[in-house]
């Protein structure tokens, strides 16, 4: 399954978040593949796309950041997967 996480630094923690990132602490846990990571140009947030079949491993990777980041993670599917479901549910016009 693919999971998109949006993360943002809690007030007063940006410097610590940057230090951890630059120290290489942003790698995913074992059993989680990072497909991409993007940083908002205004430093307000970022996005990471993961692939895993193990939600516990994803949780394990987020836990060390919980003190400085607000993290919102969602299961996501691609257009090619969504299209047939939408066609079936809403009919094809």
Overall mean pLDDT stands at 96
CATH class: Alpha Beta
- The number of helical elements comes to 3
The CATH topology assignment is: Alpha-Beta Plaits
Secondary-structure arrangement, i.e. CATH architecture: 2-Layer Sandwich
Query: What is the makeup of the main sheet?
Result: 4 strands, antiparallel
Strand content: 25-35%
Low-confidence runs: none
Radius of gyration, whole Å: 16 Å
Count structural domains. 1
For the record, give the distance between the C-alpha atoms at the N and C termini, rounded to a whole number: 30 Å
User: What is the total tally of β strands?
Assistant: 4
In terms of structural class, how would the helical and strand content be classed? alpha+beta
The outline comes out as elongated
Which strands sit side by side, in order, in the main sheet?
Answer: 2-3-1-4
The helicity comes to 25-40%
Structure description:
This protein is of the alpha+beta class and about 90 residues long. The chain has helices at about 15-20, 55-60, 80-90; strands spanning about 1-10, 35-40, 45-50, 70-75. A 4-stranded antiparallel sheet has the order 2-3-1-4, with no helix packed on it. β2 and β3 form a beta hairpin. The longest helix is centred in the last third of the chain and has 12 residues, at about 80-90.
């Amino acid at each position: 399954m693919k999971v998109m996480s949006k993360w943002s630094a809690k007030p007063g923690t940006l410097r610590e978040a940057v230090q951890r990132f630059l120290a290489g602490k942003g790698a995913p846990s074992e059993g989680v593949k990072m497909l991409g990571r993007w940083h908002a140009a205004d430093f307000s947030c970022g996005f990471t796309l993961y692939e895993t079949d193990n939600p516990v491993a994803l949780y394990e990777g987020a836990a060390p950041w919980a003190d400085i980041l607000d993290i919102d993670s969602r299961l996501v599917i691609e257009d090619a997967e969504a299209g047939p479901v939408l066609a079936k549910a809403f009919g094809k016009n």
